[in-house]
Fold this sequence. Notes:
Elements (H helix, E strand, L loop, with lengths): L1 E6 L4 E8 L2 E9 L4 H13 L11 E5 L5 H18 L2 E5 L1 H5 L5 E10 L2 E9 L3 E11 H8 L5 E4 L3 H4 L6 E3 L7 H15 L16 H13 L1
Parallel strand pairs: 1-4, 4-5, 6-9, 9-10
Antiparallel strand pairs: 1-2, 2-3, 6-7, 7-8
Helix pairs in contact: 1-2
Amino acid sequence: MKVLGIDTSTKTTSVGLIEDEEVLAEYNLRGLVSHSESVTDMIEEIFKKFDFNLEDLDLIAVGIGPGSFTGLRIGITIAKVLAFSLDKDLIGVSSLVANGMSDYGNVATIIDARRGNVYASIINNEENPEVLFEDSLLPFEKFKEELDKYDEITIAGLDAEKYVDEIKNAKLSKNKGMRGINIAKLGLIEFKNKGPMDIFSLVPNYLKLSQAEAQYDKKNETSK
């Protein structure tokens, strides 16, 4: 199966193309370029290098977050338009889980969500990623308590370097940022397990603080 992966959940615009287990191409761009412009340009650039085109895709996978509200809307909208216009299967996957798939073993992905909070997940990545800690938005100090339970853990995510020294038994990933091929790989895994998603019901996973976590956050803010 040929799978196109797209992610715009962070400052990195990521596009990847795989065929079954083989990586065909990837394009990851970090900067101030608009996601809406860069995604379409990157897809066009990738397909210039092959003797097949978008119509030959079998599946489109897109990161549904959590992450940037605006970025997620752009990436998911582009994926939906492609899937609908090309009559292709579509699947949405966790951006955090995909981000952790560049490393082996126990991997935590951390994205700064501001005001002391983080978007976070933990996976065990061996043959296939096993989710150990579901995608969450929570205070970093609370997530740190979870991370400190591990004898060894790799910290990934664009903001990993900011937090790694505060976590016991942690090492920094060499591939901190998002990769489009990981979105494609995770999409293929989940498609085989669950099948495609309905194009019109696919929505971003924005996440929000639980009431208890919001109170924790508020208490910390007032005590500063």
